[in-house]
Amino acid sequence: MDIDPDDVFRDDEEEDDDFYQERNFTKEMIVYLVDASPKMFSTSCHSEDNSDASHFEIVVNVIEESMKTQIINRSYDEVAICFFNTREKKNLQDVNGVYVYNVTERDDLGRITATLIKEFGCILNTFNKQIGSKFGILSETRDNSLYNALWVAQALLRKGSAKRAEKRILLFTNEDDPFGCLKGVTKIDMMRTTLQRAQDAQECGISVELLPLSKPDEDFKLSNFYADLLGLEGNDLAEFKTIAAERLEDMKGQLRKRFFRKRKVKRIYFMIAHGVSIEVNTYALVRSSNPGGITWLDSVTNLPIKVERSFFCSDTGAQLQGPVKRFHTYKNQNIIFSADEVSEIKRVSSGNLRLLGFKPLSCLKDYHNIRPSTFIFPSDEEVMGSTRVFIALHRSMLRLKRFAVAFYGSTAHSQLVALVAQDEIVTSGGQVEPHGMCMIYLPYSNDIRSIEERISENNHVVPRATEDQIKCATSLVKRIDLKDFSVCQFSNPALQRHYAVLQALALGEDEMPEIKDETLPDEEGLSRPGIVKALEDFKLSVYGSNYEEETDLTSSKLPKKRKGGADGASEIYAKYDWSALADEGKLTNLTVEQLKCYLITNSLPVSGKKEALISRILAHMGK
Question: What is residue 405's predicted lDDT score, i.e. its pLDDT?
Answer without folding.
Answer: 95
